[in-house]
Amino acid sequence: MDLLDGSSALVTGGASGIGRAVVRQLAGAGAAVAVLDIEGMPAGEEVAVSLACDISDEASVVAAVGQAHDALGGLTVAVLNAGIGGYGALIDLEAEEWDRVVDTNLRGTFLCLRQVARAMVEGGRGGAIVAVTSISGFLADRHMSHYSVSKAGVAELVRVAARELGPFGIRVNAVAPGTTDTPLFASTARLPGYRDRLAERTPLGGIGTAEAVAQAVLSVLRMTWVTGQVLAVDGGVSLWSPIDPVESFPPAGP
């Protein structure tokens, strides 16, 4: 039997991109799904409950997680996916822009994880939580300091939470997508040659899809003896090294 069949699942940022793909796959696996998204979305065949929620706002998170818990009769699965991007050179970055990104990506994930964990501990049935971080959390991407720091923080939050929540039967892991064809990534279309260069440096080739990342999320949710781990879901692009000597070899012949 699929562990997700009959589960009560909460997905943040479930209205688009990776979150939307996770919602589809969870519903397909037999889960009842509650979506929390700042824009909201209609409930329907795949979504049992849809709630508007600003994850950077504590009162909004407390209320929305509580409503989702009550509507689904408890929570056993959570995918903390909501997040935003940001770009700017460190010396030019305004504190307000730093706060905007860090408050959503790191503070927001903390608030959601805390409330979901409280619900799962109270429910007494254990559970599984997956947070969506990014390979930017362990790479050094220029002009992305606030984004990278926020995602690195999420990875460490997951590790600490896994230790604290393990005794309650709650597993906490993360997936770290690389370049993924989502609305958040769409802005890179204005950068000449960017996508082609990424595809060339990705061992599996091309750009990732939201469905592929969602598949990894569900796989991690099903792993009953894994906790505190961060899985890179990037086609291998984070394996690229600027000092790899093979980069200097002449192209291989036909």
Structural topology:
Blueprint: E1 8-12, H1 17-28, E2 32-37, E3 49-52, H2 58-72, E4 77-80, H3 95-123, E5 127-132, H4 145-165, E6 170-177, E7 180-181, H5 194-201, E8 208-209, H6 210-221, E9 230-233
Parallel strand pairs: 1-2, 1-4, 2-3, 4-5, 5-6, 6-9, 7-8
Primary descriptors:
Rossmann fold; two-stranded parallel sheet; seven-stranded parallel sheet; 254 residues; 6 helices; alpha/beta
What is this structure, in a nutshell?
By secondary structure, the protein is of the alpha/beta class. The protein contains 6 helices and 9 strands; from the N terminus they run βαββαβαβαββαβαβ. It has one domain: Rossmann fold (3-Layer(aba) Sandwich), CATH 3.40.50.
Count all strands and give the number.
9
- By CATH's scheme, which homologous superfamily applies? NAD(P)-binding Rossmann-like Domain
Count of discrete structural domains: 1
Instruction: Compute the CA-based radius of gyration.
Output: 19 Å
Q: Helicity level, as a percent range?
A: 25-40%
Please count the helical segments: 6
Outline, from the CA principal axes?
A: globular
Structural class of the helices, strands and pairings?
alpha/beta
Strand order of the largest sheet: 3-2-1-4-5-6-9
Tell me what portion of residues adopts beta-strand conformation. Answer: 15-25%
The CATH architecture can be named as: 3-Layer(aba) Sandwich
Q: What is the CATH first-level class name?
A: Alpha Beta
